[in-house]
């Protein structure tokens, strides 16, 4: 049996929203101590690595390790019916193969939804050497991405020892957004060697927008023309990490 409860529906809703930007169906690995998900989007351009320990929830119980595959889009529709201060319980009924969702607040609502066949694919953690480590506020990153989106659908991220730069160039306009080390936005910057790589703004925008609801701080790690790792600091000791493949530009 698997059951979890959160006293504030917003925690669970934000968590599921972060997952929904990459996958419609998700196979969670559930064990007595935590719930995990590692999955790639259908185009295999981006990956999410997610883990929340049992301590993140008001109640959590899993009698034995199991897998649960659910339609994230449909679950999110139900969770959006819950107000900020309403409690949500999820209960997996393995006999019927259904997930029970109970929302308790001004009144009680009970929903059921089917589980799907769990995928057996194991997604490995990318083994990458990163030359840049940057720590920034999610609000500052979100604003930089929004500025870049005004002129292009992709952005070149560059870093040296003193600054992190977002360069976007379109047919008519260009934009350069510079974050200086030690500023209110760029809290830390460690550089093994100057690096630059280009990424899709649509992916970056969706990732940062969704993850900013769960975290005020993010770390970015990348090397030239290699995938970028975005790690969002969680208040409940959880892990929310994204990997995004670079856009390879031809000269």
Q: Descriptors for this entry?
A:
single chain, 251 residues, alpha+beta, Proliferating Cell Nuclear Antigen, DNA Polymerase III, Chain A, domain 2, 2 domains, nine-stranded antiparallel beta sheet, five-stranded antiparallel beta sheet, 4 helices
- What is the domain tally? 2
CATH-defined fold name of the largest domain:
Proliferating Cell Nuclear Antigen
CATH architecture of the largest domain: Box
Query: Secondary-structure element sequence?
Result: EHEEEEEHEEEEHEEEEEHEEE
> Strand sequence of the main sheet, in spatial order?
6-2-3-4-18-17-16-10-14
Helix content: 10-25%
Number of helices: 4
Global morphology: elongated
The count of DSSP E runs of length 2 or more, i.e. the number of strands, is 18
Please compute the radius of gyration using only Cα atoms: 20 Å
CATH classification class of the largest domain: Alpha Beta
Strand pairing plus helix content: what structural class? alpha+beta
Average pLDDT number: 93
- End-to-end Cα distance: 56 Å
Low-pLDDT residue spans: none
SS strand fraction: over 45%
The biggest sheet amounts to: 9 strands, antiparallel
Tell me briefly what this model is.
With 251 residues, this protein is an alpha+beta fold.
List the helices and strands and how they pair.
Elements (H helix, E strand, L loop, with lengths): L1 E5 L2 H12 L4 E7 L2 E7 L5 E8 L5 E4 L3 E6 H8 L7 E7 L4 E7 L3 E7 L17 E6 H12 L4 E6 L3 E7 L4 E7 L5 E6 L3 E6 H11 L5 E6 L5 E6 L5 E6 L7
Antiparallel strand pairs: 1-5, 1-7, 2-3, 2-6, 3-4, 4-18, 7-8, 8-9, 10-14, 10-16, 11-12, 11-15, 12-13, 16-17, 17-18
Helix pairs in contact: 1-2, 3-4
């Amino acid at each position: 049996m698997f059951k979890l409860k959160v006293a504030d529906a917003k925690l669970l809703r934000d968590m599921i929203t972060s997952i929904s930007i990459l996958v419609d169906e998700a196979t969670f690995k559930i064990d007595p101590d935590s719930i995990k998900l590692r999955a790639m989007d259908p185009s295999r351009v981006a990956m999410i690595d997610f883990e929340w320990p049992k301590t993140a929830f008001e109640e959590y119980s899993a009698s034995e390790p199991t897998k649960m595959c659910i339609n994230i889009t449909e679950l999110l529709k139900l969770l959006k019916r819950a107000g900020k201060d309403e409690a949500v319980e999820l209960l997996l009924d393995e006999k019927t193969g259904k997930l029970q969702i109970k929302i308790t607040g001004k009144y009680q609502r009970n929903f059921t939804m089917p589980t799907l066949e769990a995928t057996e694919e194991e997604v490995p953690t990318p083994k990458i050497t990163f030359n840049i480590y940057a720590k920034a506020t999610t609000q500052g990153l979100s604003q930089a991405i929004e500025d870049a989106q005004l002129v292009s659908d992709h952005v070149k991220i560059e870093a040296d020892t003193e600054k992190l730069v977002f360069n976007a160039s379109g047919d008519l306009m260009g934009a350069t957004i510079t974050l200086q080390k030690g500023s209110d936005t760029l809290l830390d910057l460690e550089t093994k060697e100057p690096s630059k790589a280009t990424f899709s703004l649509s992916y970056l925008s969706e990732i940062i927008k969704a993850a900013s609801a769960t975290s005020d701080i993010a770390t970015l790690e990348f090397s030239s023309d290699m995938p970028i790792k975005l790690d969002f600091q969680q208040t409940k000791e959880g892990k929310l990490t994204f990997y995004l493949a670079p856009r390879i530009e031809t000269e």
